Amino acid sequence: MHEHLGRTEIARRAHLTPQAVANIVEELLEEGLLIELGRLRSGRGQPPIQFAVNPNGPLTAGIEVAADHMVTVLLDLSGGIRGQSIVSLAGPGPDVVPDLAASEVRKLQDALGADSSKLLGLGVVMPGPFEIEGMSSVGPATLPGWTGVDPAPLFATATGQHVVVENDATAAVVGERLYGAGRQLGSFCYLYFGVGLGLGVIQDGRPMRGAFGNAGEIGHVGLTPRKGKGVYGPAGALERFVSVFALRERLAMAGIYVATVEDIQRLHDENDQTLRDWIAMAADYLAPTVAMLENIFDPETVIFGGGLPDSVLDAVIAALDPLPVSVATRLQRSLPRVLRGQTGQLTAALGAAALPLLDTVSPHLSVADPAS
User: Fold this and answer.
1) Residue 65 and residue 92 in contact, taking contact as beta carbons nearer than 8 Å
2) How many CA atoms does the CB half-sphere of 359 hold within 13 Å?
3) 304 CA to centre of own chain
């Protein structure tokens, strides 16, 4: 991102006429999206006036709704995190969550002294798949109570904001692209450990969404692990074995109950045997998963992130070795085949907060009606 530019340089980079840029800059200044920094002293003639994104201008809000918690963030236009919160959910239904989301956004705004008029919009991310008949998650990843319910109007009514809704893994890969290990990458895959297991894909710098917003529902795919026998049908779905839900279920069978990331971290610090066994099993399923993703998408790397402690993700990645041969098996690599993400529990909410801005400024191409 360029910190400051003059009108002429903006016109050159955007391939617009100087007059068009002047009109756009003037409008953005009036709306508080840009600020004027003064003149740049360089060369002969009148120094150009420099402009930059206004870090104290309008904000965007991001909400991640999971089965047992909700993450809220506020971002300024320069990408700075201006507020964040994580609250537990007694119930994730549509009768509770929109009002709670509105309350959390107001609390974060109040802490900044910012009123609601400074919000450009609200991004909301939820587990998919969206509106697929006959398909449900093997764990509690698909939120109960939301079947047949359009979340956008409910959140818009509760918050009074323009709302953009996305699935959690796609938002997470946007968050990692903007703030984490994917900042310098144009093409990568992101395995998102939410309550279930999701996949986000960045291809040529843009997220892959699919025709109906359901690209990346990898949790429903069944793969044969490196050790043991494959299980077919819903009982063999990846997130039945490799997800936060699967880990909690395995721990509960051993009489160990965890509610937070900190609880899982404590078990790892204590070298808990049940957790160690799950890490080994998860790696047996994830190693062929990584090779499959590499063969399909040819990414620069595959990133693991989401709702597990960094230390556990590192242990899972270490247990992948040796990975199966794939198109990514090359001696000369600038990156390892698998990396850990850098944005932790905030990943999906950060991506969510970027959605209203992307929705506002990105061009949208429509398919022409063949009858017209």
Assistant:
1) yes
2) 18
3) 12
Q: Is the pLDDT of residue 61 over 60?
A: yes
Amino acid symbol at 353: A
Q: Is the peptide bond before 129 cis (omega within 30 degrees of 0)?
A: yes
Higher pLDDT, 136 or 351: 351
CATH topology of domain 5-53: Arc Repressor Mutant, subunit A (1.10.10)
Q: Which residue has the higher pLDDT, 144 or 7?
A: 144
User: Contact 264/252 with Cβ under 8 angstroms?
Assistant: no
Q: Which fold has domain 59-171+350-359?
A: Nucleotidyltransferase; domain 5 (3.30.420)
Q: Contact at 8 Å (CB) between 222 and 230?
A: yes
Query: How many CB atoms sit inside 10 A of residue 186's CB?
Result: 13
* Residue labelled with tokens 């904001």: 161
| CATH superfamily to which 184-341 belongs | ATPase, nucleotide binding domain (3.30.420.40)
| 147 membership: H or E segment, kind and range | none
The Cβ of residue 145 has, within 10 Å, a number of other Cβ atoms equal to 13
CA–CA dist 181, 177 (Å, integer): 7
Say how far apart CA 18 and CA 8 lie, in whole Å: 6
pLDDT at 136 over 60: no
Reading the block at residue 133, the tokens are 């008949």
The answer, yes or no, to whether residue 372 has pLDDT greater than 70, is no
Per-residue pLDDT band for 76 (boundaries 50, 70, 90) equals confident
Rounded CA separation 37/50 (Å): 5
Instruction: Give 100 or 45, the one with higher predicted confidence.
Output: 100
Can you give the pLDDT at residue 39? 59
Where are the alpha helices (H) located in 134-260, listed in sequence order? Answer: 151-159, 168-179, 244-253
Q: Is the pLDDT of residue 25 over 80?
A: no
